[in-house]
Each structure stands twice: as structure tokens, then as C-alpha cells.
Amino acid sequence: MSIAEQIRQIAVEARQASLVMARLSTAAKNDMLVRMADALAGDAARVIAENGKDLESGRRKGLSAAMLDRLMLDDKRIAAIAAALREVAALPDPVGEITGMRKRPNDLMVGKMRIPLGVIGIIYEARPNVTADAAALCLKAGNAVILRGGSEAIHSNLAIAAILTRVMADLNIPPAALAVLPFTEREGVLEMLKQEESIDLIIPRGGESLIRFVSENSRIPVIKHYKGVCHVFVDATADFDKAEKIVVNAKVQRPGVCNALETLLIHKDVAAAFIPRIAATLEGLQVELRGDEAFRRYAPSATPATEEDWHAEYLELILACRVVDDMDAAIDHINRYGSLHTEAIVTSDYGRAQRFIREVNSSCVLVNASTRFADGGQLGLGAEIGISTTKLHSFGPMGLEDLTTTKFIVYGDGQVRV
Amino acid sequence: MSIAEQIRQIAVEARQASLVMARLSTAAKNDMLVRMADALAGDAARVIAENGKDLESGRRKGLSAAMLDRLMLDDKRIAAIAAALREVAALPDPVGEITGMRKRPNDLMVGKMRIPLGVIGIIYEARPNVTADAAALCLKAGNAVILRGGSEAIHSNLAIAAILTRVMADLNIPPAALAVLPFTEREGVLEMLKQEESIDLIIPRGGESLIRFVSENSRIPVIKHYKGVCHVFVDATADFDKAEKIVVNAKVQRPGVCNALETLLIHKDVAAAFIPRIAATLEGLQVELRGDEAFRRYAPSATPATEEDWHAEYLELILACRVVDDMDAAIDHINRYGSLHTEAIVTSDYGRAQRFIREVNSSCVLVNASTRFADGGQLGLGAEIGISTTKLHSFGPMGLEDLTTTKFIVYGDGQVRV
């Protein structure tokens, strides 16, 4: 069989299996996930041996030490993967939830019931833990899942999948509900993106080029995560201690992630008082500052910011800084340069806090808190399957519920339409 | 300017205007809609004159009498359009609703707030009332809207839009938030579908070929409405009076619409008792029956059904009929041949009713009620912008809320991530 035929068959079988998944009880799904965790922990040696093949070929291909570290599995990391499976088992099941049940004038009872999406395709890069994590979330939400990992981790991914699907087979759950594509040619991705009859949603997890490639070539809806150009606006009424703590945390605690701070906006009324202080603190933490003219008046060591800096997602210890006349100017800047990811205001003014919450329509809007909280775990979703920066279906960090949809349910007693 | 440049400009201006729309108060939006209704009613003569040009050119092009009737506007129909605008004004505003507000262990308050999608593109066919209806729903939900109607109605659509945007301008609301494309070349649709930087959602309303064209050529997410192959399953415990009333209503009341019945499934235990009765009733109403062998045993006048009949969306007085062994067989048939639109069971058995509701994952699932209730107005949405038969973002009849999304909102007091 050609790659195209194989992928088509995997997708059709996943669609069939999704019908079984959708009917599984919460208890059956949780039991499956706990057994998967046990099986992974029990078979760690086999996974580590297969992971060794990936590491060996990674070294031959000259992967960086950081890449090899992301790829590497040992007993501790496998225990962490097993623990994550148990955590997903412990999450509430979104499927079957009924909301908005109401009586219509003709006595029909109408509401909505939450149901699985069907078949979800995940296209991801190096880390093999995604294989188990993403599979667990999709299966818990009653879906089938097709995983296409990176070529660097193919042996690890297949070893993990073999253990998980063996548990499913033992429980009479169709193993086709969890498929890892056994080849890593780009042709495989393209074919996967054509299976719109069988796959309901594609989630790409990786760099911007992967995400662009997937969304430009997919006939299936894609939930995209583009860049995070996150802003903090320090208002005229900000508490400087809180503002400093929040800016430092947002920029420095983990600069390489999408919810890290990239542009600092400062109200002109507090420019003279706040800028020297925050500039000294940030430079003391090795942060390179790039400011507009008004900012550099109070922080002469900052380099001049260019138009490009307002668009930049640095993902390193660089911060663009700008003085704004008022909150309208801050919001205009965010609307013009932002990426709809995450923005925070630091303020003591009730009205401005409420206005910022209301008028800034990024996926996560915070008052007096670090942008680093824009994360499924931190926001209370239990686990995160990704972050959407486009508005359809999901916007912001996505949890189990985002892997479901709703149908209308209607209880009648013989009603007909007049 | 080329068509491509003009459309790009319309889209960019709509994006800008959407930022203003998103901040309008509910009162301001409602006031705008009521004034639009008044202006339309007051300027009916002008709309009717422009509509006359469309009718004239339609007659020259040889449009059918039915098409010309759909196109025609008179005082009564314009009054109905104005009434629909007032109804949208009276609907609750979904924007700003806050749900799921919860305190996290670190005392952050986290919830979700409903916000507009941004810019919505509607691509539709003949009826000029859609221009006002769709615009009203999009604007009420705080969005900008770009409308691309059919060439048959271009004068009517532009006349309606001119009246509505004049009201917006009078109220200092940017008229760019309501754009009707002033040309009807297909090139215009293609260009519109490329404006993914400015348009958030495309909703095609029309025949299957329009919908396929749009979804195959769009870089913007599309909410699709494919066909409605709706089923009624008459269970072994069905009350025959209710079953007959429901089957007749679902098939006969308005056979040309997507929520009309296309396939009747009958439990084998009641085949002998129910089929002669329902066949006589339906044939008395001029319905052509196409049955499997078991069905025709009790309804010899029915013609033999072929595999194609199980897939058919007739949209006329034809009904495919099949006897099934049990509920599993009914559900299997629906999974195999259905279009995920609407299915109903007629039963007196509590357990089967609940199982049907739980296990049939079409967009609308009913117990003891006609499939014809799968409609936004009937289900209580207030007004309907379309019906989605795909599962992302919306599934089933779509109302105002489906023209919005949610963002995370977080109230803190200086919290940072540890």
C-alpha cells in the first residue's frame, strides 16, 4: 500500500473507532488511562531502549544538546508521563454535560449536550511525552486521535503507542482510536490533511513554519497557535512594587515561552518615576531594553526601538518599551501590534481595570497579574492541549472541553411543527 | 483600483470598524437596529425601485417564476424585514457575559468573557432579506460584516445597505462595519476568501455547490452546512398516533427544507402493525415510498429502495423506508448514511429514549418530536444565522452566541508565577 492509502485506512479506522470511544463510560475511560499509566511505568525499559535508537540517530544527524535533551527519556521522565496520564484520568469528563435545558412554549424541553468532536489529528515536533499527553486528553474527551510526531522521535513514539494500544486491546477498546503514523515523510502530513471525511480537527504543535504549513495545506479545520507578543501596561495609578514584580516575572521567569512579556507600555504620568527603577532592575537581570525616545529619556542605556521591535516575539531577554499618553494609546498599540495572545494592566483604578478587561480582546486579559498565568494549568483547565490565538471554536489555552462540541437535545411528547 | 485591491481595502476597513463595534454598548447597538428598521420602512419606495431593476434583469435572464418571487420586494416584505431588525434589537446581547468565574489557589479570580468574533463574511444567494437579517445579527453580536450577495439581487442589496449604513453614519458608528461588495464577479468571492488577516469567519448560505466552492477556496475558517438526511426511528414501543403525526409532519409539512424527514426506520417488532397504516397515510398525501424488502412486505405499493436512497436528500415528497432489527441497527444506519443533521426516535421506553439522546451524535437529536424543530427559532435561539453540520465552533442551528467567542479574564492583586 502507498503512504496515501495507508493514511486513508488509518483515518477511516479511527473514524469507526471514534463511534465506540464516544459511547465509553467515564469509568471505562478513566480505568483505561490508569492502566495505561501502569503499563508505561512497567515497560519503561522497552521505551528507553527504543528512545536510545532515536538519540543515537539524533547524535549522528548532529542535533543540538538542547534538542537531544528534549528527546531523551529516562525512568524519571517516563514516571512523569505516567503521572500525567493519571492526572487526566482524575479530571472531570466533559462528555454528557447538559446545559441550558429550557421549556419552550409548546412544552418541548430543549437543551445542549456536550459530545466528543470525533477524530482529532495532532501534528507535533520533538518531545515524545506529547504522544502520551495528547492521546490521553483526546481519548478522555471521547475522541479517536491520530498522532504524527517528528522523525527524531519516531522510535520512542511508536514504543509508547504500542504500550498504550495494547492496554486498549486488552480492554476491548478498538486500538485504532489511538494511531501513531508509522512514517515521517512530509507526504504523510499532506495526506493526513486531506482526510476531511474522517478527521474533524487538526492541532499542530510546534514552530511557526509547521503551523503555517499545516494551515495552508489543510482541508480540515485547524486550531492555530501563532506567536505571543504579550504586553504589560503600567497605568498612571499602578502600584510600583506590584508593577515591578509583574514585569520582572513576565519577562524573566521563563523568557522562551509564548506567554512571556515582549513589550512594556508605560503611562506618561509615571514615566519619570517608574522607568529609572524598572530599567535598573531589568538591566540588573541582564535584560536588554529597546525603548522609544520618551522611554530613553529616563533610561538612557536603552537602545532605540524600531518599528520591528513592536512586532517582535523575542523569546529571549530583550524587552521593547514605550511611553504612551493614556490608556487609549495603550489599547491602540496592543490592537495594532499585538498577537491576540495575552495582555495585562497594572493599575489601582477600578474603572480602568474594568475597561481594560472589557476592551482588550486578546485571548487572555489580566489585571495586576503576570502574563505567565496564560496557561491551561494555571487557569484551572487541568491540562492543556494547546493555545489557540485564533477565535473560532477556542480562543486561548485549551483544555478537555475544547476537544468536544455540543449537540441540541429535545425531549417531546408528540409535538409537531405548525 | 482592481477588484482585489478594493476587496482588500473593504476588509481592512471592516477590521478597523470591528474594534469600534466591539466596544458599543448594548443600548447603542439596539438603538441603531431600531433606527435601521425605521429607515428601511421609511425608504421602502427607494428599495422597491432598485428591486425593480433586479426583477427586470432577472426576467431578461429568464429566471424561473419561483426565483423571481424569492427576489421580489414589496411594502409587505420590507415591513417584514424591518420587523426582523426590531426582533434582533430585542434579543439579549451575548457580548460581555461572564461565565465560570472561579478563585484559584493563589487567589487569582479566573473566568471567561464573551466577545465578538471580529469580522464575519457572509456569502449568499438570491433573497435580498438576508442582507438586512444577517447584517443585524452580526452587528448585534458586536462584529463587522462583509456581505456578498448574488448578482440577481445586487441593486436591492446595495439599496438596503445604503439605508442601513446611512443610519450608522448618523450615529457616528463607522459604516465600514457593514459592507456589501459592490460587484458580483466570482473573482470577488475568491479575493474575499483570501483576507485571513482581516476576516475571522466565513458563512456561506446557499446550495451545496456554493458551499463546496467556498470551503475549498477559503483560507478563513468556514462554517459549513451540507445536506440534511434526517431520520425518524419508530421504536417497538412507539405510540402509533404520535409516530404517525411526527412522520407526517417531518416529511410533508415542508419537504423542501433541510430538517425534513428523508429516511424512516421502523423496528421489526412493529413492522406488521405500523407499516400498512403509515404507508396508507403517506401515500394518501402523495408521498412516494421507497422501501427495503421487509418494508415492502407490508407496503407492496412501495418501490424497491436502492443503496442510493439511503444517502438521498430528496427535498421532495419521497421517503426511503427500512425495517431494522433493533435500536443498534437503527443507530448503525444513521451513523453510516446520516449527515449529522437531525434525527428523532419515537418511543415509550425510557431507557431507549435516553440511549438515543446519548448515542446519536447528530447536531439535533429528538425524542417524540418532529425533525422540523431543528431550527434556531423553534429551539429558542431567537434568530438563526445558519445551521452548521460540521462540529467545530458550532454544531446545529446557530444564533447570536455563535457569532461570538470567549476570552479568559483574570483579576489579580500582584500575583506572579512561581
TrEMBL record, chains A, B:
PROSITE patterns in the record: PROA
Main subcellular location of this protein, as a coarse class: cytoplasm
Reaction(s) the record says it catalyses: L-glutamate 5-semialdehyde + phosphate + NADP(+) = L-glutamyl 5-phosphate + NADPH + H(+)
Domain Aldehyde dehydrogenase intervals: 4-292
Gene3D superfamilies: Aldehyde Dehydrogenase, Chain A, domain 1 (3.40.605.10), Aldehyde Dehydrogenase, Chain A, domain 2 (3.40.309.10)
Keyword tags: Amino-acid biosynthesis, Cytoplasm, NADP, Oxidoreductase, Proline biosynthesis
Stored InterPro entries: Ald_DH/histidinol_DH, Ald_DH_C, Ald_DH_N, Aldehyde_DH_dom, G-glutamylP_reductase_CS, Glu-5-SA_DH, GPR_dom
Gene Ontology MF: a single term: glutamate-5-semialdehyde dehydrogenase activity
Pathway in which this enzyme or protein is active: Amino-acid biosynthesis; L-proline biosynthesis; L-glutamate 5-semialdehyde from L-glutamate: step 2/2
Function text: Catalyzes the NADPH-dependent reduction of L-glutamate 5-phosphate into L-glutamate 5-semialdehyde and phosphate. The product spontaneously undergoes cyclization to form 1-pyrroline-5-carboxylate.
Family recorded in the similarity comment: Belongs to the gamma-glutamyl phosphate reductase family.
PANTHER family: DELTA-1-PYRROLINE-5-CARBOXYLATE SYNTHASE, GLUTAMATE SEMIALDEHYDE DEHYDROGENASE
HAMAP family linked to this entry: ProA
The protein, known as: Gamma-glutamyl phosphate reductase
UniProt source species: Oryzomonas sagensis
Gene name per UniProt: proA
